[in-house]
Structures are given as C-alpha cells and as structure tokens.
Amino acid sequence: MTTTAGNDTASDGTAGNDTAGNDTTSSVTTSEGTRTVAPVGPAAPGRRWHRPSAYVERYALVAVWLVVVVAFGLARPETYATTGNLQNILGSQAVLLILALGLLIPLTTGGFDLSVTSTLSLSAMLVAVLNVQHGWSLPACIAAAVAASVVVGLVNGACVVLLGIDSFIVTLGTSTFVLGLVQWLSDSTAVTGVDPALTEWTVVNRLFGVSLSFYYGLLAAVATWFLLTRMPLGRRLLFVGRGASVARLSGLAVDRIRWGSFVTSAVVAGLAGVVYAGSLGGADPSSGSSFLLPAFAAAYLGATAITPGRFNAVGTFVAVYFLVSGVVGLQMLGVDNFVQQLFYGGALVVAVALSQLVRRRTSGAG
Amino acid sequence: MTTLQTTRPPVAPATATSTPLLQLRGLSKTFGTTKALDGVDLTVAPGEVHALLGENGSGKSTLIKVLNGFHAPDPGAELTIGGRSVPLPVPPGRFREHGLAFVHQDLALVPELSVLENLRVAHIAGSRRPWINWGAERRRARTAFGRLGLDVDIDQPVQRLGATERALLAIVRAAEEIRDARERATAEHCLLVLDEPTVFLPEEGTALLFRLVRDLVADGRTSVLFVSHDLDEVLAHTDRVTVLSDGRLRGTADTAAVTVPQLIEMIVGRPVQSPVPTEHAGHTPERPVHAGVTDLHGGVLAGLSFTVGAGEVVGLTGLAGSGYEDVLPALYGARPGASGTLRLPDAALDLATSTPAAALAHGVVFVPADRARDGAAGELTVLENMTLPVLAEFRGRAGLDRRRLLARGRQLTETHDVRPRDPRAVYGSLSGGNAQKALLAKWLQTGPRLVLLHEPTQGVDIGARTHIHDQLASAARGGAAIVVASSDYEQLATLCDRVLVLARGRVVEQLAGPALTRERIADRVLGSVTLHEATGSSPEVTA
C-alpha cells in the first residue's frame, strides 16, 4: 500500500471513510461530525485535562502508596512506623531507582533495554576487580566501569539502529553475553574488600539519617524529570517513540536519538553498578539480575501516575518506593520470601495492564 | 529476470451470450447525507473484459467495496452472477463462494513468502485438515501455472519477482480461487475484479497481463471487471466500458466505438473545449524564480525540472504511478534513492544526500498526506505536535518555558481556527479538518520559504478546506513558494496559479491562467498517457 491508494479513498472518503478501518479512520470519520457542528459556534474546549477523574488517575499511585504505608504502620507500629525504618527504606532502593530511571530513556523512544542489569553487574564487578585485584584508584575504576557501559550501549544501539533488529531480542542477547563476561572476569565468585571510601560515600555517610545513595537517586530522578519534561530533547525522545515517521519528517535525527537512548540507559546502569558496589562493599556476579523485574515494574507502574500514559521520573520514583514499602511491610509481617516475587511480578502485570488501559483511553480513539 | 513467461498465444474473446454473467441493478449507497452511488446498473456479459471508469469520488471504489462485502448497499439493490442471485450485502469474506475474485492495486502478496505459499495461502488457511499436504499443493500450483502457459519457480520468494510477475501471480491466484469455487460447486460463473493492478506496470507488463486475462475469460464462464484511470489501457484491452460520475451511471459503450475525447467527456461530465493553450514547464514568466528543481530522478521520476516563483502556488498532478506523488518527498530529502537539485535563493540542495533536517534548515516544509502516520503523533497533545519544530525558541533558564509554549499554542489554535481551542487536547481526538489545520499551523509558524503539501485537504470537511486554502494563499502573499501534489482537480484549479501534469515521471502539460479549470486538468491527466506517447513512441491504441 502506497500513497497512491489514497487517491480513491481521498474523495470517496469524504463520504464516510469506513474504507481504512484502522488508525486513520478516527480522524476522518469524525470530520463527518464537525462538518455539521463546526459552523454553529465556537466549540466548547475539551478540557479533559481538568476532569476530576484525571486527578484521580494522576495521583492514585501516590494514594495507594500512602495507604500501604499507613496500613503496615498500623499493623506493625513498633517496627514499621519508625524513623529508622523510613530511613532504611529510602536508603536501600537507590540502585533500583537509578536503574529504573535509566530505563525510562529507551522506553520513551519505544525501545527495550533488558541488558541494564547485566551492565550494572559488569560495572560493579569492574570496580571491585580493578580496585581489589589490580589496585586501581576508585576514580579510575569508576571511569573504566562507565567506559565499559558505554561500549555495551553502543553495541545495543548499533544492532537496533544499523541492523534494524528488535531491541527486545538484541538486549536479551547482549545481556546474556555481558553476564558471561562478568562471570569470566570474576571467576564466578564474589569479590570483596573494595576501598571503604566507596562504601562510605554511598551507604555509610548519611544526611538527615538517610544514606547518601538515596540522594544520588533523588538527583537522578530530578535530572530525568528535567530531561523528559523541560528539555526539547525530552520532547524529541517522545516523538521518536510515538511516531518515528513524524519525527523523521520533522527533521529529528531519529537514528541518533534511538542509539543515544541505549547508550544513556547503559551509562546510567553503569553508575547504578558503582553505587551497588559501594553498598555491597564489593561485587558478586549474579545478584544484579534480580533488579530486572522490579526496574521494569517500577517504570511501567510509574507510567500510570503523574502523567498517565507516559514514562515519567516522578511516577517511577513513587513506584519504586511503593514497591519497596510493600515488600518491607510484608517481610515484617513475617510472610515468606516468595511473596516478594509475587508482589513484584503482580505489580508489573497490573501496571502494564493499567498503563495500556490509560493509553487507550487518552490516545483519543473517540 | 523473467521467470514468468506466457508461451501460449492469446485467445480471442468468447462471444457474449444473452444471459449476462453479472447483473447489478439499482445499486445505491448513502454515507450520512452523501450519495456515493445513486441507482447504478451494471451488466457484464460472459467472457467479457469490462472496464469501469470514473474520477476519484465517482463511486468506483464504493461499487467494488459493495461487491467484496465491505460496504452494505442501501436496500433495494439486486445482484445476480450467472443468473444466480447473490445476497446483498455480500456476506463479508464469503464473496468467493458467490463467484467473485479480486486483485487490488497492492496485490496483497507477502514478499517474504514463496510463490507457492502466496498462491495457495487462501486454500491453506481455509483448509480444515490438521496438516498441509505440501506435495499436493505443489502439484496443484504447477498445474495452475502450466495451464496458463507460465513457467515459474514456485519456491522463490515473491520479493525476488519483478513488478509484472507479481501482478501475474496475483491474477493466477485469483483464477485459482475461481477454480476452487467451481470445484466446491458454490459458483459456476465467476467475475474477476481487477482494481487498478496495472498502475505500476510498464506497458509490456500490462500487455502480458491482459493476455493472461484473455486466457481466463476464454472459457465463457468468467468475466473481468477492470477498474482503471488509464484510458489507453482501457481502449487497448477491454471489450466494453462503463463510466461512473458523481455516483451515477454515465453510460456504457463498446470500447471499439469510443474515442479518448469521448471517454474524457463522459468521465468529466462536461465537454472540454479544445485546443488548450499550453506552455512548456520550467518557466514562470512574471515572477522571479524562488525555488528551482532540476533533473529530479527517483522511482518513476525521469529527470523532472520545474521552477516555482515567490508567492506562486504550483500544483502537481497525474495518474497514480505517474510520479507526481513522489516529487514532494524527494524535494524534502525524505525519499531514499532520489537525485537532483533543489535550488533556493541562498543554497542548492543535492537531493541525493539531502535530509528533512537540511530541507528545514533552508526553510522547506512538508505537510504529508498520511496525517496519522507521518503528520503528527496522535497520542500526544495538539500543543506538543504543533510546537515540535520550534522548541528551540522556548528555551528558558529553567528549561522549556511552558507558559510561553502554551501561549503560542493558544495563538496558533486561534489564528488557524483549530477546534477545540484547547492546545492540550489530544491530537488524535481532532476531526480531519482540525487535524490538518493544526499541522498547517505547525509548519507555517516557522515562516517557510517553500511549502510542500501532499493532498492537503484529504479527509477534510468543506469548511476547513476553505480555511486551509485561505491560509495557503496568505502564506503565498507573504512570499512563500507553494507546491501542492493532489489528485483533486477541483482543488488544484481553485488553489493553484499553475498546474503541471505528470505522466511516466515527466511533465507533459502545463496549465495556467484561463486554461486552468477542473475539466481541463482532468482532460489532461486522463489523456496524459496518450499525449505522452504521441510525442514519444508511436501510439498503440487499438480497439
């Protein structure tokens, strides 16, 4: 089907276009309606933005989070509802938060990056191995870890952009490959004894009783929020994701933007890996993988809040802490460990289902 | 790479008998308040190749879509095939049982699959057996090609076939569907509808295809309804011709007894005065040249050159496949494989390497025909879509200045009459006319020097159409050069100072001044192939 097919539908179409039967139909068929409506007078502006239900949609996740916190607080007042626990919860999730924020970039452009957790493990392991076994200084280790992450991102982007492979399958492949590298690098054993300075600057040192790593996460959230909502680049990412052809015809460098998004998520995952190495005081070859599902769950759950239907930093922040508040509460109730899996897995499915519903409703199909 | 070859000589058409193969009576179809078809009768004799002609919007497509069950006609119509009554509306997806087969312009082939798989896909998909008997399918496919004297490697993927071979394959497949219907005894007589499958074929390809068609109808139980815009093809290959105009039957004639001017008069609905004064393309007498296109190649475009003056509105038109739709993407740097030069007052763009970003940087903007795919992201807001090209203007100290952005959005919806007047409405919720006005606002705010528009009022209501015309006229008064590619002759006549008619990738006519009327454009477009051939090789018009 090429543009020529439009010839006949063009004018036949003005007379009721059930010809297309797909996405173009919505705008064309509604033109029927306006032909009679438009001359009558200034149409009432569709202020769907200010409907009360829109507010409910935007802040439902925040409300649910508060409900969860209050409920567990009432159930376990002596352990859950304490400042210590709050500080603990906040400080413990920096790695997941940073990782999920990095994921938002490719997700916004319509790409998947499943390799972020392997990149995180690679970065953490490089820091540990170079520092402990080769005596590199911390800044040098961190630079090397970030450089390695850039390489992973470049490879992902090259496969997606140059070869046109689905990002899902590309990053599944690179993820496994990188994990292999990590095991090779580490002889499949945990490496401990990283320079205590790293641990001090991530988990030990505290500000208002909360580990510094929390503030790194907060900083990452603010930066991501600024990028996605306040910078022209954020808009461009959004257009690449929601209409690649539109973006291309509007003069955007679509390929470069998509490639860049994979490099960004890899670099952010690398930085998360540095924080992870700090919080563990070393690195182990496998535990990083357990972040994959929570990170996606947080990103998708976050997309149902604040600006529903769009991946956004504030929503992701709320989602991460909603998830961990729930998990910690369940643990304090003495529930078995597998419940954590149920909670994360269930949240991901519910989040994706919700965001799909929201997207369908706001995409103006009617 | 000719893998399909006819080895049998064409067979003379069977003589028409008294019982018509297809009889359609009193067919009407109403959309809202518009009558797309109004009491149309159509009779096709057995063994006949019958042409269906008409302008865009004449009701041709609607008629075809009634036959394939896509549209339900207004009550009161009757359809018989081979004397058997066919229920109306035709049950969707079951037209085959009633002896109807279709080949559409896009051919509906899957390029990655083999010839065999494409040929037998309907049969395989409809089969109730739990496994596929590939041996039997292969034998059947070989027989099908052999019967028509075609030699073909049935295992090669369709993407390796040439355009002509693909069209032949689609027709062979339709013939097989007809044969299946006969075997299942659901229909004895069959009508094969060819809905412009020849648009992209070279002349030899069309000739080959019609030899195949003649073989098919030779059994006297099959007829062909050939939908086309190309009068030459119709005259060369069909027995009778029916013309629709504004949803009404304009007339039916023996092809041998009509001439191109007579057909054009039937199609346009009014006699066209001739001779028409014509000039050669590429020269604008009274205006300074603002944009110049030289030696444009790509697809069917064969060295096209023309100029546009400042403040001038130039139209491009032609039949489907003439190349007029390919010009704008090529000028905008959005068509891979194009070459040529676009000269602007301060720069010359090499179109082989140009990109949309480069075109934009030089003040060239493009409003594409397919709004939903290429124009705007339907899930995002009107504001976001409209301000995408100008975001750099709104950088503030704290990032994008959202208040100023919103103010711009309000101002644009106001000046371009986008309803609702809420820039934060979701773009996809706008009507066709308002969606197009928003797109125009998106590009005109950049102060472009060359505006390229492809079918600017497709799916747009009358009120919005006038508004869009006004906006373009005002942009032209501001000094922009405007190029409109369209198949809407009425619009071209209203909007343009000059219209170039393309055929086979070249400008064959230029209309301006008093010669620029809807009828003249239609005349020139519909007769364009003949005109072109008259100047080139010898015309091959036989009756």
From TrEMBL, chain A:
The keyword Transmembrane helix applies. InterPro entries: ABC_transp_permease (IPR001851). Residues 1-45 are annotated as: Disordered. Residues 1-34 have a biased composition (Polar residues). Keywords: Cell membrane, Membrane, Transmembrane, Transmembrane helix. CDD domains: TM_PBP1_transp_AraH_like (cd06579). Pfam families: BPD_transp_2 (PF02653). It comes from the Bacteria. The chain crosses the membrane at residues 56-74, 86-105, 136-163, 168-186, 206-228, 257-277, 289-306, 313-332, 338-358. GO terms for cellular component: plasma membrane. It is a multi-pass membrane protein. It is found in: Cell membrane. One of its GO terms (molecular function) is transmembrane transporter activity. PANTHER family: ABC TRANSPORTER PERMEASE PROTEIN YPHD-RELATED-RELATED, RIBOSE IMPORT PERMEASE PROTEIN RBSC. This is ABC transporter permease.
